[in-house]
């Protein structure tokens, strides 16, 4: 199953390590260090609509590679999406091994 993070960005539900509220977590020194480290490693991906402020941060891990997504959706909205099923027909996902964004297609589950 996949979770939509915004602007055609979708990640596998199994790859999500945690969903964090940016208003609360950016106060922590550890979170700022994590964000800085991920930015330096070019592992931060923006899934927000242009001109919107991110509300949540999603930590992912795929094949041992960590990624960090910024989303315009609240953590509560993303948590609700984790409970349901989201399978778009076309989606963009970050390929950690190739270090690039790939576009794939799949059939919708109905």
Q: Can you put this structure into words, describing what you see?
A:
Helix content is about 25%, strand content about 40%. It is built from three helices and eight strands. The strands form three sheets. The protein has a four-stranded mixed sheet with strand order 3-5-6-4. A two-stranded antiparallel ribbon has the order 1-2. Strands 7-8 form a two-stranded antiparallel sheet.
Rg calc: 13 Å
Share in helix: 10-25%
Please tell me what the overall shape is: globular
Mean pLDDT, all residues: 80
Q: Give the termini distance in whole angstroms.
A: 13 Å
Concise summary:
This protein has 110 residues and is of the alpha+beta class.
Jot down its keywords.
alpha+beta; single chain; disordered C terminus; 23% helix; 4-stranded mixed beta sheet; 110 residues; two-stranded antiparallel sheet
Question: Could you outline the blueprint of secondary structure elements for this entry?
Answer:
Elements: E1 2-6, E2 9-12, E3 16-21, H1 22-25, H2 29-40, E4 44-46, E5 56-62, E6 65-71, H3 75-83, E7 90-95, E8 100-105
Parallel strand pairs: 4-6
Antiparallel strand pairs: 1-2, 3-5, 5-6, 7-8
């Amino acid at each position: 199953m996949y979770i939509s993070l915004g602007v055609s960005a979708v990640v596998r539900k199994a790859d999500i390590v945690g969903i964090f509220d940016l208003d609360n977590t950016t106060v922590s020194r550890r979170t700022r260090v994590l964000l800085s480290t991920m930015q330096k490693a070019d592992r931060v991906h923006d899934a927000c609509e242009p001109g919107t402020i991110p509300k949540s941060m999603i930590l992912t891990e795929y094949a041992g590679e960590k990624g960090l997504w910024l989303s315009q959706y609240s953590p509560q909205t993303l948590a609700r999406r984790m409970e349901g099923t989201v399978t778009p027909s076309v989606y963009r996902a970050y390929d950690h091994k190739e270090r690039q964004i790939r576009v794939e297609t799949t059939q919708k589950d109905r």
